[in-house]
Amino acid sequence: MFLEGFARLADEFAGVPSDGDPEADLMALGHAYRAAACANPHLYDLMFGRPVAGFRPDEAALAQIQGTFETLTRAVARCMDAGRFAPTDPYDVAVQLNALVHGLASLELRGAVGSTVQADHHWRISLENTVRGCRQPPITDGPPQP
């Protein structure tokens, strides 16, 4: 079931263009994440909530699910390659975007962002503001220390 949730997320991502406007394509990935979470809340909880005590995916499962994050990282890199985002590490930006959509999806599934209309609003402005912020020079303090 855990892997099925990621397979469905990958299917949603596969429906997002990767050859149009890079920012629009990136934001479409955010909306695809939302669609997958809302269509499969039980799987979303298995994927990220760990409702089964002690469950930890093995290395093979982790490798299998990495593709969804790589899709996001490639979309961020496209924005940078097109000169739309300030140059930085695409992985770092992908982590930030992943945290945003994961947080929004988790809140929405728990009813914490209001009605569907209110949730639509929060998703739209959150993605737009984040993408806008990515156009600016990144704030960094060097690589993370071990």
Summarize, please.
This protein is mostly helical and 146 residues long.
Note down, in words, how this protein is organized.
There is one protein chain. The protein has 146 residues and is mostly helical. It has a single domain, classed as Tetracycline Repressor, domain 2 (Orthogonal Bundle), CATH 1.10.357.10. Helix content is 70%, strand content 0%. The chain contains six helices and no strands. Helix 1 runs antiparallel to helix 2, helix 2 packs parallel to helix 5 and helix 4 packs across helix 5. The longest helix is centred in the middle third of the chain and has 23 residues. It is globular and about 40 Å long. It starts with a helix and ends in a 12-residue tail after the last helix.
